[in-house]
């Protein structure tokens, strides 16, 4: 008989939190930035508004991002990383490096809105 009926795997937990279709891209673009929905749409044009909204809600539910609504007309909503969201940066950087190396080794050019620049704090994102 097992002492625990619940399955809790650290890697599965991480993937559940950041594994959505656009979640990693959203998190990446929010590193060091506070962005509005329209800005995220421009950075991730392949995401439909409905899908982007769903991914943002899930990230907010998982406490990885915060959503700030300002009481102005028209409504102003900004998204930024929480402390927990900022803690995912090394994981995203490692995923970027691993994926980029894989692409290079297979003669494939990276083609996405994620790019890396050097900073005093190791690698950080830079969105163009």
TrEMBL record:
InterPro entries given for it?
HTH_HxlR, WH-like_DNA-bd_sf, WH_DNA-bd_sf
Q: Which domain of life is it from?
A: Bacteria
Q: Which residues form a coiled coil?
A: none
Transmembrane ranges? none
Q: Which SUPFAM superfamilies match?
A: Winged helix' DNA-binding domain
Q: Which PROSITE patterns match?
A: HTH_HXLR (PS51118)
Which Pfam families does this chain map to? HxlR (PF01638)
Record-level Gene Ontology MF annotations: DNA binding
Residue limits of the HTH hxlR-type domain?
Answer: 9-107
Q: Keywords assigned by UniProt?
A: DNA-binding, Transcription, Transcription regulation
Family matches, as PANTHER family: TRANSCRIPTIONAL REGULATOR, TRANSCRIPTIONAL REGULATOR, MARR FAMILY
Can you name this protein? HxlR family transcriptional regulator
The source organism is Lachnotalea glycerini
| Taxonomy of the source species | Bacteria, Bacillati, Bacillota, Clostridia, Lachnospirales
């Amino acid at each position: 008989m097992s002492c625990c009926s619940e399955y809790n795997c650290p890697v599965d937990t991480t993937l559940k939190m950041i594994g959505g279709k656009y979640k990693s891209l959203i998190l990446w673009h929010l590193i060091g930035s506070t962005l509005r929905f329209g800005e995220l749409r421009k950075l991730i044009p392949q995401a439909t508004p409905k899908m982007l909204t769903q991914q943002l809600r899930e990230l907010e539910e998982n406490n990885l991002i915060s959503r700030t609504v300002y009481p102005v007309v028209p409504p102003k909503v900004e998204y930024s990383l929480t402390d927990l969201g900022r803690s995912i940066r090394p994981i995203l950087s490692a995923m970027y490096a691993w994926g980029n190396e894989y692409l290079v080794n297979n003669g494939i050019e990276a083609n996405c809105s994620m790019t890396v620049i050097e900073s005093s704090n190791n690698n950080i994102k830079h969105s163009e």
